[in-house]
Specification:
Layout (H helix, E strand, L loop, with lengths): L1 H19 L3 H17 L4 H21 L9 H4 L12 E3 L7 E6 L2 E7 L9 E8 L2 E6 L7
Parallel strand pairs: 3-5
Antiparallel strand pairs: 1-4, 2-3, 4-5
Helix pairs in contact: 1-2, 2-3
């Protein structure tokens, strides 16, 4: 009966994994499968629990080291991600700067603009590198003509 519970537990974890969308429950399900196989091999209940724990822990550690366990994008990176903010990479004209800050018209609206550190204020055309709230962070465009 205990062996059947290992298989049912593994099945439930796989279904929950399909709903949840991460691989961690699948790794725990692998531990359940290992315990069920240990039961078939004649291991006692204490050893089955130990095998389930060790296999699940090892699988989770291997997953964390793999590319599937790493976070690919954090919330801070979303401000610079052109897949999230379609304005990143666009160019705009900033007529005048005041200590690295300006206001300019972009796509029919007035925006706050902030110059990235180390960038010159004498370029006419700037490229958007990030959005921070309603503020466009810009660098001098490589294609800009200096005045």
């Amino acid at each position: 009966m205990v062996g059947l519970l290992w298989w049912i537990g593994a099945g439930v974890l796989v279904v929950l994994e399909l709903i949840h969308g991460t691989f961690y429950l699948l790794m725990v399900a692998l531990g359940f499968v290992a315990a069920a196989l240990a039961r078939l091999a004649g291991a006692d209940l204490t050893l089955q629990f130990g095998i389930a724990a060790v296999v699940a822990l090892a699988a989770v550690l291997v997953l964390r080291k793999s590319r599937f366990g790493r976070k690919t994008r954090t919330r801070a990176e979303a401000a610079r991600n052109p897949d999230v903010n379609l304005d990143i990479g666009s160019t705009l004209v900033v007529p005048a700067w005041h200590a690295g800050h300006a206001r300019t018209s972009y796509r029919g609206a007035t925006w706050d603009v902030e110059l990235s550190p180390g960038e010159p204020e004498d370029a006419n055309v700037y490229e958007i590198t990030a959005l921070r709230g309603n503020c466009l962070v810009v660098v001098a465009s490589r294609h800009a003509v200096r005045t």
